[in-house]
Amino acid sequence: MTPVQANKWIEENMLPFYPPGDLKVDGKLIEKKPTPTITQKKETK
């Protein structure tokens, strides 16, 4: 299986059940802490 084929397989077979950010330990969903967002200040002229 090539890397491209492996990525396609993951996309089709794993991601529907384990989407990115969906973490489970012992079958229980682990809540992710919200990540802080960085806001950029607009430069005024």
Description:
By secondary structure, the protein is an alpha+beta fold. Helix content is 24%, strand content 13%. It has one helix at residues 3-13; strands at residues 23-25, 28-30. The chain has a two-stranded antiparallel sheet with strand order 1-2. The longest helix has 11 residues, at 3-13. The N and C termini lie far apart (55 Å). The model has no long low-confidence stretch (mean pLDDT 77).
Structural class by helix and strand composition: alpha+beta
Provide the β-strand percentage band: 5-15%
Major sheet = 2 strands, antiparallel
The helix content is 10-25%
Q: How many β-strands, per DSSP?
A: 2
Global shape: flat
H-E order: HEE
Compute the average pLDDT. Answer: 77
Rg result: 18 Å
The strand order across the widest sheet is 1-2
Spans with pLDDT under 50 lasting ≥5 residues? none
The count of helical stretches stands at 1
Terminal Cα separation, in Å? 55 Å
